[in-house]
């Protein structure tokens, strides 16, 4: 039982990270109907920005408090990743908005290849390990919860609350929801559609950057190929929860994290990615609208 | 008149100011983009700790290039492009197509047939190896794969991101069956195709209901599952170590390319021993396979099944209401496309003599799909050109040793291969979303054949 709860905790931690990435996929898909294939690489880019800022800070000011260090890392990662995603949207996706459906997907795949190889070229192909930032572990009823896991879960909850507030209560969020429902009508009613889409990309990227920083802190290592597998898993999470639905993305992320850690704990660790991919295929085949998504009605 | 001169002058002044402003913004943005990744580098020191390396000079180059590039593009390139477009629109379209253009495919096939002897003549038997193998065979494999995928994506409009799985099935079928049972290449080539087609069917069945992006993601998942199984099923596939020592192909069993064999090709013709003959043989083999793919594609397009594929691509609902069985149509597209992937896979195994899961990553699927899309989806010539440009271009990068003189001796152009490939994918897509050959000849027509611009046809709705 304790073993099971322990795996639950691990799964929820991993799931929080997937959930944060999945929100970026689900929002972009909701608003312009494209799979932003490069989103996983934005997550990786955020992790690298955090890594570089960490090294910079520790080499310049030794003995900085960890809280401050983490906050600066997260802020730098969010800024950099947002700027990248904003630029990419403007340069690569916007000119293709009226084009046929495959075009943005192909561009996004090209962008994903370009981003990961850009990091490989500028930062080198090797694994980048960092010393552990926080190492305390608490023991609650025989289950060990590390401070890292607590930070990840608490931060996820804070971000999701803020995010939920922005989307549901502010005029910006209203503009986003309106653009999602009908882009042309929203434009006619005076909503700056281009700006709204840009903001969506920025929001997605900042959440992915936080996830990237958490991932770096949790595993203590990052590498330029780190965007692909977490990216596909987060996309699976978005689909599982129902693409276009924000609570769905988080729910999907948590489920994928749980499935992954329980699978590794009770079956073989070798096939854990096969399990995730099979879930993706099964969900898409039998319930393409996901758990919380609305079924798509086909108009002729 | 003076009025017009005035406005254009004012526009010119505005343009420079605007270009300066945009150039400045571009500089600031690129500073933000690159400051962490280019300005600073993380490297391991002797004690294996990560340390920061500063590269502010390189960062300055990046920022200046971005700012100046943006300035030039706004101030000069854009007005020039607009003027050119206007003059091109005013000029009547010349009807006469040149002899070269009309007979392009025939000329290309003849050129490919004489390519290996020409290379042998130019660079000698040993020197031709690089040109025949790295350029000829490498490009032709991608041409064949792209033509195979074209049946699924270009003709039937089903977006497949896991095509490399069938390539893997073909390669592993040849590698394992030839080692276990000692079958020859000529027996296993059709068998590999059939096995791959069978897998295409298995994959096709569950995804029949899916469309567009979702179909793409599920096929991606299938491709990854096959690769992960190849990695983890170590008893059969030897995992990441791969299968090595795969037997060579022979010329229909008449001549062999094994050095010790009595019927060795070089011995039979009293030629000096060289691996170049085998490569030249492989070149003709893959050329024949690729041309077979093209021939079958062209023939199928004229048959009811090909018409059904194209109808399916244009509009699935209309297709179904006209009584076309979409299930069999989709399944045949998947399995025939997969079959050619299987052929290419067994050829790949024979050429490398070694297969490992490393060769069948998602990136390969992305490259093949990129070639199909950049080639203009459905156009065989366009796809061949795209393959030559994208694969040949990245291969050419390996040859550019003169770049070392410019960027210093540490400069390795191969490192930039995939970076440039990715950027090229984005640039070509933004610049020409319809691919290099953006128009399509209809196969069914009333009285007169009219070329339709690519923008009037739909894809990817599968």
From TrEMBL, chain A:
Q: Does Cell inner membrane show up as a keyword for this record?
A: yes
Query: What are the entry keywords?
Result: Amino-acid transport, Cell inner membrane, Cell membrane, Membrane, Transmembrane, Transmembrane helix, Transport
CDD domains per the record?
TM_PBP1_LivH_like
The reply to whether Cell inner membrane figures as a keyword in the UniProt entry is yes
Question: Sorted alphabetically, which Pfam families does this protein's record hold?
Answer: BPD_transp_2 (PF02653)
User: Where is this gene product found?
Assistant: Cell membrane
* Source species, domain of life: Bacteria
InterPro entries per the record? ABC_transp_permease (IPR001851), BCAA_transport_permease (IPR052157)
The transmembrane residues are 12-35, 42-62, 68-88, 100-120, 140-167, 197-218, 238-262, 274-293
- Membrane topology, as annotated: Multi-pass membrane protein
What the record says about family reads: Belongs to the binding-protein-dependent transport system permease family. LivHM subfamily.
This chain's protein is named Branched-chain amino acid ABC transporter permease
Give the source species.
Shinella lacus
TrEMBL record, chain B:
Transmembrane helix listed as a keyword = yes
Q: Which residues form the signal peptide?
A: none
Source organism per entry reads Shinella lacus
Cellular location(s): Cell membrane
The UniProt gene name for this protein comes to livM
The transmembrane residues are 24-44, 56-77, 107-127, 139-169, 181-202, 214-233, 276-298, 331-354, 366-394, 415-431
Q: What is this protein called?
A: High-affinity branched-chain amino acid ABC transporter permease LivM
Keyword Transcription assigned to the entry: answer is no
Keyword terms: Cell membrane, Membrane, Transmembrane, Transmembrane helix
Q: Which CDD domains match?
A: TM_PBP1_LivM_like
Membrane topology per record: Multi-pass membrane protein
Which positions fall inside the High-affinity branched-chain amino acid transport system permease LivHM N-terminal domain?
A: 18-115
């Amino acid at each position: 039982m304790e073993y099971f709860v322990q795996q639950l905790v691990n799964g929820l931690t991993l799931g929080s990270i997937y959930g944060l990435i999945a929100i970026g996929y689900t929002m972009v898909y909701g608003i312009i109907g494209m799979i932003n294939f490069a989103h996983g690489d934005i997550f990786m880019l955020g992790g690298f920005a955090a890594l570089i800022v960490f090294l910079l800070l520790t080499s310049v000011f030794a003995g900085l408090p960890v809280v401050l260090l983490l906050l600066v890392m997260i802020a730098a990662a969010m800024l950099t990743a947002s700027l990248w995603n904003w630029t990419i949207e403007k340069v690569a996706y916007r000119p293709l908005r009226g084009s046929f459906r495959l075009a943005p997907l192909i561009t996004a795949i090209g962008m994903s290849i370009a981003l990961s190889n850009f990091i490989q070229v500028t930062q080198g192909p090797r694994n980048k390990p960092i010393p552990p930032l926080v190492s305390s572990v608490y023991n609650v009823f025989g289950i060990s919860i590390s401070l890292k896991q607590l930070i990840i879960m608490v931060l996820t909850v804070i971000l999701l609350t803020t995010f939920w507030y922005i989307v549901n209560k502010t005029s910006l969020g209203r503009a986003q929801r309106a653009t999602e429902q009908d882009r042309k009508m929203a434009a006619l009613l005076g909503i700056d559609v281009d700006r709204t889409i840009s903001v969506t990309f920025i929001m997605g990227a900042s959440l992915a950057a936080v996830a990237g920083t958490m991932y770096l802190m949790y595993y203590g290592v990052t590498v330029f190929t780190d965007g692909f597998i977490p990216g596909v898993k987060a996309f699976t999470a978005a689909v599982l929860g129902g693409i276009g639905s924000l609570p769905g993305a988080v729910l999907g992320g948590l489920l994928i994290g749980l499935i992954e850690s329980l699978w590794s704990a009770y079956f073989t660790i070798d096939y854990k990615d096969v399990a995730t991919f099979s879930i993706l295929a099964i969900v898409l085949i039998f319930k393409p609208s996901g758990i919380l998504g609305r079924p798509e009605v086909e108009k002729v | 008149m003076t009025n017009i001169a005035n406005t254009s002058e004012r526009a010119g002044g505005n343009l420079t100011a605007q270009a300066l402003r945009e150039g400045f913004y571009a500089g600031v943005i690129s500073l933000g983009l690159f400051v962490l990744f280019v300005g600073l580098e993380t490297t391991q020191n002797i004690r294996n700790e990560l340390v920061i390396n500063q590269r502010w000079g390189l960062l300055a180059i990046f920022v200046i290039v971005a700012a100046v590039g943006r300035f030039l593009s706004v101030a000069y390139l854009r007005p020039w492009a607009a003027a050119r477009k206007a003059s091109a629109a005013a000029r009547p379209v010349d009807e006469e197509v040149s002899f070269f253009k009309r007979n392009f495919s025939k000329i290309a096939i003849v050129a490919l047939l004489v390519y290996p002897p020409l290379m042998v003549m130019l660079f000698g038997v040993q020197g031709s190896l690089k040109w025949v193998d790295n350029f000829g065979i490498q490009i032709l494999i991608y041409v064949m794969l792209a033509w195979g995928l074209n049946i699924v994506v270009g003709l039937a409009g089903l977006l497949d991101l896991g095509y490399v799985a069938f390539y893997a099935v073909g390669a592993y079928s040849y590698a394992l069956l030839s080692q276990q049972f000692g079958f020859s290449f000529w027996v296993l080539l059709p068998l590999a195709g059939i096995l791959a087609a069978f897998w295409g069917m298995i994959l096709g069945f569950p995804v029949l209901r899916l469309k567009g992006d979702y179909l793409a993601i599920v096929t991606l998942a299938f491709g990854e599952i096959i690769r992960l199984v190849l990695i983890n099923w170590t008893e059969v596939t030897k995992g990441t170590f791969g299968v090595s020592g795969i037997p060579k192909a022979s010329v229909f069993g008449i001549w062999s390319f094994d050095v010790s064999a009595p019927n060795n090709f070089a011995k039979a013709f009293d030629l000096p021993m060289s691996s170049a003959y085998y490569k030249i043989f492989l070149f003709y083999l893959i050329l024949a396979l690729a041309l077979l793919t093209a021939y079958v594609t062209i023939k199928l397009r004229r048959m009811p099944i090909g018409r059904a594929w194209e109808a399916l691509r244009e509009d699935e609902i209309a297709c179904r209401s006209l009584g076309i069985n979409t299930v069999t149509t989709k399944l045949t597209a998947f399995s025939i496309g997969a079959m050619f992937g299987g052929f290419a896979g067994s050829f790949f195994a024979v050429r490398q003599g070694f297969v490992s899961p490393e060769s069948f990553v998602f990136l390969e699927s992305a490259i093949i799909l990129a070639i199909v899309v950049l080639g203009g989806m459905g156009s065989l010539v366009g796809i061949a050109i795209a393959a030559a440009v994208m694969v040949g271009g990245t291969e050419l990068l390996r040859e550019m040793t003169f770049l070392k003189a410019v960027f210093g001796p540490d400069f390795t152009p191969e490192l930039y291969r995939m970076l440039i490939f990715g950027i090229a994918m984005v640039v070509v897509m933004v610049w020409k979303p319809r691919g290099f050959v953006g128009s399509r000849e209809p196969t069914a027509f009333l009285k007169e054949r009219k070329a339709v611009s690519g923008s009037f046809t739909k894809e990817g709705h599968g």
